Structure formats: structure tokens, C-alpha cells
Amino acid sequence: MTTVAAYAAPAAKAPLERTTIERRAVGEYDVLIDIKFAGICHSDIHQVREGWGEAIFPMVPGHEIAGIVSEVGSGVTRFQVGDRVGVGCMVDSCRECENCLRGEEQYCLKGMVGTYNAVGRDGEPTYGGYSEKIVVDENYVVRIPDGLSLDVAAPLLCAGITTYSPLHRWNAGPGKKVAVVGLGGLGHMAVKIAHAMGAEVTVLSQSLRKKDDGLKLGADHYHATSDPKTFEELAGTFDLIVSTVSAPMDFGALLSLLKVDGALVNVGAPEEPIALNLFSVIGGRKTLAGSMIGGIRETQEMLDFCAEHGIGAEIELISAAEVNEAYERVLASDVRYRFVIDTATI
């Protein structure tokens, strides 16, 4: 066991505070990672505040992890000391079910093991990236290409793959019209990636406050959802809409913007249930879908794609002592566009 410093929430809704945690000894197939940067995801806030249900405390959040390998187990073949690596939202799965076997471990039929707020196969709680080090099985570690700086790469381990996966699956590319709902931590990555894929990209945001940013990030068009004319002008326009908003939305209004056979894919995770009139999907043979991160293989594919196209997150680097303030600013939409903790400050 190794004792490392970390920032943890001692109880639900409590401020995070500096503490120490125990990391397991490096096993035969484990990789010890010196964490350099950890992104702050809105999911961290949902879980610290038990917005998604009962949680495990003390909780060390963080599933956007970038660092350097400092030790490997005797059976490790994929990594060596000094490698630049990342860890995303999961650190294990059953490895035997049909979803795991086809590289979609995030949909493990027995339940994936989250990087934090979960119980590992050893029966111990998992602790995330707001810490100095982490030990992870090599099969759940990905390589960060040399073309990506570790600080801007960290948010790709959640925000990047969460948006890349539905864009890839629903064939965003040349000739396709894609709308991104919300220009935040997830939304700004969706815009960058969809643009790089060759799609015509529109941002749908509550106001035009971030319009200049959206266009610089790669959007071709930018519209305010608070303006009723938006829904009149854009009715039947899009092949794909990716909603990144973690608050209840008028899904009927959004579905009206799709072409026949279009898809509205939700990657935001509101705490409250939504209401939907099914005629919104029946009329137009439309699809309302969801998507959750990506498997390890697809996550590596996403990182390689981002390196090839020079895509990193837009970040604000902070010290660990600023994490509680950062949480409040995320809730106030006062970040452009992802807070990243410099873990050297822990």
C-alpha cells in the first residue's frame, strides 16, 4: 500500500478538503501513474452532492486523469516507465460479457467499475484523480500521444470521449448537419470534434453570449434557444443533435429540429426526469438516444484523432486549493471551458 495526498469530500455536499488515501500495491498487471493533471467534470459535482443517488464517502472525485507511468507490474506488456498515459471514467469491468468482449466495457452487463465512487473487484472503494498517484490495471489505461500536452489532454478522458463516441457512431462528417446543444465543458469539445470530422456544425445555446467563442472553436452557425424564431427557422434541419446539457430540456422542441431519420443523442445527465410526447419521435421516424463515454479502444482512437487534428480542451489551470471555488463557478457556467487541477499543488 502507498499513502498519497488527495482532495476528498468527507460527506455528501461537504466541501472538498486535503487528506490522504491508500493506493494498493502494484500488482502483476498494474500500472502506477504519477498524476500530473486532473480535469473537473460536472459529473464530479453531481456525485459529490449525491445528485445521482446515494454515494460512497469519503469521495475523491476525478475521472479525467493525465500522468506519467512510474512503475509497472511484472506482467505488464502495454506500458513502461516514462510513458504518457490517461485514465478515464472506468478502471475495470467483468471482461467476459458480450459488451466487454466487443470493446464496449462502459456497458459491461455486470457493471463497469467507476474510477471513483465505486467498489473495485477487491472489495475496496475506488478513489479518483484529485490525488498524487493512482494504480490501474493496464487494460484500462490509454496512451496519450506526444502531440497532446498533458494538461489539455486530461479533459479528453471524459469530455472528449463522451462527445466523440456519439459523433462517430452517428456518422458525423462531410454532408452532415450537426447541432451541439450547450457550449460548456462537453459542448466545446463536441464542436471541435464535429468540425474536425467535416460536419457542418451549429451551436444551440440559451443565449448568444458565447457566439464568438463558438465560431472560433469551429461552429459554422450559432443560435439562441431562448429565441422562438430559432425553432421556426431551423425546423427539420439537422441529421444529428448532441445535447450536452445536464439540466432538463424541452426535448420535443429539439426533436422538431431533426430531419426524417435524424437522431437526438443526450450525453448530459440531468438529475430530474424529463417529460416527452411520443409524437415528437413518431412524426419523422426520429431517434431519441443516449450515449455514455466510450470503450477503451474507442478512447484510444479518440486521443489519436485529437492529436492528429491538434485538438485539446480549452482549459483554466487551477491549484487544488481552488477546487471548491471551481465547483461553484462550474454551476454558474463561469468557466471557458474546463477546469484542470495541477496535481503538483495537492
UniProtKB/TrEMBL annotation:
Its EC number is 1.1.1.2. The keyword Manganese does not apply. It catalyses: a primary alcohol + NADP(+) = an aldehyde + NADPH + H(+). Its cofactor is Zn(2+). GO terms for molecular function: alcohol dehydrogenase (NADP+) activity. It holds the Pfam family ADH_zinc_N. Keywords: Metal-binding, Oxidoreductase, Zinc. Signal peptide: none annotated. Residues 14-341 form the Enoyl reductase (ER) domain. The keyword Membrane does not apply. InterPro entries: ADH-like_C, ADH-like_N, ADH_Zn_CS, CAD-like, ER, GroES-like_sf, NAD(P)-bd_dom_sf. PANTHER family: ALDEHYDE REDUCTASE (PTHR42683). Belongs to the zinc-containing alcohol dehydrogenase family. This is alcohol dehydrogenase (NADP(+)).
